[in-house]
Every structure is written in C-alpha cells, then in structure tokens.
Amino acid sequence: MTNVHRVIDELNMDATTLPGDADGEALANLLRATLDDGDRRLRKLGFNITSIRHCAGGKPSASQAIAELANNLLREIYANIARHAAPGSKVDLSVMLRPNAIEITQINPMKEDMAGADERDDELPGGHGLASFKKQLESYQGTLTTSAQDGSWTLFAYIPVTVIDDSPGLLEQVQV
After folding, report:
1. Gap between the Cα atoms of 37 and 129, Å rounded
2. Which of 15, 64, 68, 139 has its CA 20 to 30 A from that of 30?
3. What's this model's pTM, rounded to 2 decimal places?
4. What's the angle, vertex CA 53, arms to CA 49 and CA 57, rounded to 5?
5. How many CB atoms lie within 10 A of CB 67?
6. pLDDT score at 22
C-alpha cells in the first residue's frame, strides 16, 4: 500500500490546457512537457525509461478535445508503467507526431506476478483506464491495441488528428 500511495503521488500531474494551435507547436510542446515530467517521475521510482518524441512530415494541429485526449492517454500510460512494469526495468516510449495523427508506442517488461496476463490483450489486472481510452479513441476513429507476450507489455495508440475546430485565437487570425 505504501508503494501505491507513492506511485499516485509521483504521477499526480496537473491538467494542462492547450491554447490556439494553428501550427501544431502548442500540442508538440504539451506532449514534450508531459514526456519530460513523466520520465522524471518514473526515474525517481527507479525505472530506466527512454522516451522519444518524433515529428514526421509536420506537427499535427489538433483540436482541444484531441489534444487533451492524447495528453491524458500519455499520462495514463505513465501511470500504468509505474503500476505494472517490473521495478527498475527498461521502458521504451515513443510519440510520433504526423500532420494527421499522433502515434504512441510503449514497450516494457511486466512484473513477474503479472505473468498470467499473457495472451490477454484487453487490459492489465486492476485497472480499466486503457479500456476507457480505447472507447474514446474509437469515437474519433482511432485505435488502441495492447498485448502481453513473453513477459513483455506492448501498447500502440493511433489518434487521428483533423482540423482545429475550437481554438479561440484562430478565427481572429483569419479575419485580420
């Protein structure tokens, strides 16, 4: 129980809002900050994490809803790593920004007591966060797939990004 409270304290991240983002820079900065903060917190818990943010062909210009969904999913991934990865293990996390999508990939070894999770691809024991995110992503025509094989946990999320539809500053920029 002490470890659970420590994990919750370490991963309790403040929500962040995204300003108007016509060039995708605000989204890229938001995700970079979340990656930096999540990495720092996991390192404090003893994990050897490597996270990389790639940009292929341009940064996506996301709506507020998509930006929040992507950022909250990233936070849930960090929380799941802390809960379910083998302590001190090597964790790889990649966020690929494309002009029309965000792709998140995570790979890490599972704790030994989670070996029974092999061949279950819906969720890890003790949580329904990823199932909730899967439904949210599907409502935007995105996908979330997970697998547990040979003691390793893999997650892949595809978040399609369409046009900005709710940025307050964008309309003013067009009218000027």
Report:
1. 20
2. 139
3. 0.75
4. 160
5. 28
6. 61
Directed axis angle between helix 129-139 and helix 64-84, to 10°? 160
Residue 87, pLDDT > 70, answer yes
- Widest CA span of the chain, in angstroms? 60
User: Tens digit of pLDDT for each residue in 14-61?
Assistant: 444 445 566 678 888 999 999 999 999 999 999 999 899 988 887 888
Tell how strand 143-149 and strand 152-160 pair up. Answer: antiparallel
* CB distance 110 to 86 below 8 Å: yes
Considering only CA atoms, which of 75, 66, 1 is closest in space to residue 42? 75
Q: Which backbone phi and psi does 79 adopt, to 5 degrees?
A: -65, -40
| DSSP three-state, residue 125 | coil
